[in-house]
């Protein structure tokens, strides 16, 4: 049953029916030849109640008609994923719990979805990967998530770069996507990208860095570098990075975003590259977790003689954030004294970005260094 009104009253009628829980959420509206629109009603058997309510409460003339039922695709990706996996299990007569193959969350990077590594550690998952038609399952899952590529995250590599590791199930690991006005392009099987840091990238991008020279001590593929250039208006960024895969992504992103003339990339160990940047920066960004302590002093010395700002990322236990802030200020004050500088070190803000682990926060301390 459809409740039909003139299209001009469509939005008002839709809101009213939805507020009464009379609107069927899974069916497409009915479009008539005269331009009217019919809203599918839930099967409560009292369509006349809805008709009278629309006429009396809204003053809108309406009719009840019987129309062809068309189901709309589920909006919730979890629901679409459930349908895809259930269908594959049924078609292939695989006897296992569907929930064993459903991730609670995933990371979406452009056309690639990365499934959590915990999913691949179950006996059920290992059994499914050996099935001769497992490729059909990956295709179904990718279609449900509206992407072309699918991968399973693996533990971080035990190498100098702490490289990401991904087992590709379908498609390509090469991604390109937009994030708050910035385009990223990299190989997601070799480089980590934390979508959970979006609020901090936006915060950094919202700062006023007009005319500033910035040093990004751990640039990666440009997580913060590009936001500082595109959104914050930095005049120039010196990006330090050691990982070859990240360097490739950094350069590809700079090309796509048109930033090559305002970006200088410094490949290699930042303990060495920061030495060459002494006294050049208005601001330094230290975005390494769990700690960027090895280059605290080098980044402070990279500030211009008239000072500037440091943005220090760190993992800190929640109850120790205040004491860590005070200790960090004292450490920098000692460094200032040891180098005979005239800076006053002042904590301007502590941003609690997200929970890193139980009771442990990813925080960013904004420190001011001024004469």
Which properties best describe this structure?
Rossmann fold, alpha/beta, single chain, 11 helices, GMP Synthetase, Chain A, domain 3, Alpha-Beta Plaits, four-stranded antiparallel β-sheet, 3 domains, 371 residues
CATH topology of the largest domain: Rossmann fold
Biggest β-sheet strands, sense, barrel: 7 strands, mixed
Averaged pLDDT: 92
Unreliable runs: none
Measured as a percent range, the helix fraction is 25-40%
Q: Cα distance, first to last residue?
A: 75 Å
Total helical elements: 11
Spatial shape? elongated
How are the strands of the biggest sheet laid out side by side?
Answer: 13-12-11-14-15-17-16
The CATH H-level homologous superfamily of the largest domain = Vaccinia Virus protein VP39
What is the alpha-carbon Rg in Å? 27 Å
Return the CATH architecture of the largest domain: 3-Layer(aba) Sandwich
Portion in beta strands? 25-35%
Assigned CATH class of the largest domain = Alpha Beta
- Strand count: 17
What structural class should be given to the helix and strand makeup? Answer: alpha/beta
| Overall tally of structural domains | 3
Output the helix-strand order: EHEEHEHEEHHEEEEHEHEHEHEHEHEE
């Amino acid at each position: 049953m459809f409740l039909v009104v003139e299209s001009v009253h469509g939005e008002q009628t839709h809101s009213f029916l939805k507020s009464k829980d009379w609107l069927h959420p899974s069916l497409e509206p009915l479009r008539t030849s005269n331009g009217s629109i019919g809203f599918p009603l839930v099967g409560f058997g009292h369509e006349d109640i809805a008709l009278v309510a629309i006429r009396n409460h809204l003053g809108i003339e309406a009719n009840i008609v019987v129309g062809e039922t068309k189901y709309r695709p589920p909006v919730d990706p979890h629901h679409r994923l459930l349908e895809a996996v259930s269908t594959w299990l049924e078609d292939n007569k695989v006897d296992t719990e569907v929930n064993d193959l459903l991730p609670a969350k995933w990371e979406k990077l452009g056309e690639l979805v990365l499934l959590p590594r915990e999913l691949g550690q179950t006996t059920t998952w290992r059994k499914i990967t050996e099935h001769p038609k497992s490729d059909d399952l990956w295709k179904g899952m990718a279609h449900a998530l509206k992407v072309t590529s699918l991968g399973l995250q693996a533990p971080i590599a035990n190498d100098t770069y702490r490289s990401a590791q991904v087992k590709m199930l379908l498609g390509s690991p090469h991604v390109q996507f937009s994030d708050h006005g910035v385009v990223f392009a990299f190989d997601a099987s070799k480089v980590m990208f934390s979508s959970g840091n979006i609020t901090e990238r936006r915060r950094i991008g919202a700062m006023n860095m007009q005319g500033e020279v910035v040093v990004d001590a751990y640039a990666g593929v440009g997580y913060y570098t590009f936001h500082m250039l595109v959104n914050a208006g930095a005049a120039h960024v010196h990006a330090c990075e050691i990982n070859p895969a990240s360097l490739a992504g950094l350069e590809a992103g700079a090309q796509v975003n048109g930033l090559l003339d305002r970006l200088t990339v410094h490949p290699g160990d930042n303990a060495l590259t920061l030495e060459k940047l002494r006294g050049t920066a208005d601001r330094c960004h230290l975005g390494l977790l769990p700690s960027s302590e090895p280059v605290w002093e080098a980044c402070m010395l990279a500030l211009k003689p008239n000072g500037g700002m440091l943005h220090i990322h760190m993992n800190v236990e929640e109850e120790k954030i205040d004491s860590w802030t005070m200790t960090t200020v004292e450490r920098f004050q000692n460094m200032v004294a040891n180098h005979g500088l005239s800076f006053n070190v002042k904590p301007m803000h502590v941003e609690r970005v997200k929970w890193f682990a139980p009771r442990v926060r990813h925080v960013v301390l904004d420190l001011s260094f001024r004469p």
